[in-house]
Amino acid sequence: MTDKKTLLRQIMTSLAHGDTDTADAQIATFMDTVSEINADDVTEVAQSLDTAGVFTDASHHTLIEQRVFGIIDSKIPVLDLSTFPEGHPVHTFLAENTVIKELCQRAQELVADPNSFDALYSDWAMLASQFAQLDIHYLRKENQLFPALEKRGFSHPSTIMWTVHDVIRGMAKTYAHAVEAKDKDAAYPALDELQRGAFEMTVKEEKILFPKSSQLLSQNDWIEIRGGEDEIGWCYIDKPILWNPTWTHPSEAGSETPEMSGAPAAPQVFNPDEATRTSVGGINLEVGNITPEQINLIFKFMPFDVTFVDEFDEVRYYNKGDERVFPRSPGIIGRQVRYCHPPKSVHVVEEIIDAFKKGERDEASFWINFRDAFVYIQYFALRNHAGHYKGVIEITQDASTVRGLEGEQRLLDWE
């Protein structure tokens, strides 16, 4: 008898090659003979086929995997994820999923009622706002969970699941536009498609992603993930407690140093008698001498986002401004840059870096409309005195104000 992983491989291969008749027969055999298949088997087969070049690209891979998952979903057991303590990243994701499922249920009820758009328009509008928050749920996965999995050799979610995230984000925007335009004919199918996509993602998370993650990641991995979540935020729930089972209160550790608050202190009047001159403890740069504290402050208060990727394509730094255009969290440090961008646009980043490394280009610029802002994005190649490539910096800024300037302002005007 053919084993279940071989059957699954045959199904995916047939679908990838467009041989639906053969795939249908293989699916029937699978459903009749396989009682259960675990998440590891599914991801192992999918990744092996991807490595073998069976899929034409990431989108093709995603399409086939989505179809197969819909077919064999009932064969994948639901594992008990209730043991994760409050504040643990998985516990937080599951709490958000509970609300997401409730939103999907409400969406189904509205779609089933042909009169609801007119009679309950405020409910349709509220769902548009609520489904838009899915972006935060997905951002935490992309920026915190996925990098940790990549370090364990599991890059599947960084490409395939991220692609599905972007599809669902697109569905949410399509639905929101239909509701805003009060286009009933477009809103009904848009909401139905959105709730299906959002619900199916919760199933994938709970049957595949979270069980696999719990197997691969250590307690320290999860502590690091939780430590970076604050920079991205949460959706539908209150801020979770700062889960860290290894943390010891300073009083118990024998330290007299008070716990520092994350809130910035109020501005203080400068007192030169309490200050230390830069020449003490400074770092000699190509021009000038400044301290590490000053370097951090310069980047922190720059009115734009800075990300540095070294010559090995690893993210080594980003500045922690208060109002970043694109979210960043500590999980991306050391991450391959190709996993830091949506799969649909990563080829552009790779093309830029390849041209920089070959010495063909030194700069690339883009400008986009993003969340009611005009965003200007620049990439600059870094080279040493010998001309050797040493990495790239990405500069991103909300240029809406600059774009709207007219005339001149030569006098100070703080009013």
Automatic annotation (TrEMBL):
The keyword Iron-sulfur does not apply. Keywords: Kinase, Transferase. The keyword Kinase applies. Gene3D superfamilies: nmb1532 protein domain like, PAS domain. One of its GO terms (cellular component) is plasma membrane. InterPro entries: Hemerythrin-like, PAS-like_dom_sf. One of its GO terms (molecular function) is kinase activity. Pfam families: Hemerythrin, PAS_10. Residues 88-212 form the Hemerythrin-like domain. PANTHER family: BLL2471 PROTEIN-RELATED, DUF438 DOMAIN-CONTAINING PROTEIN. This is Histidine kinase.
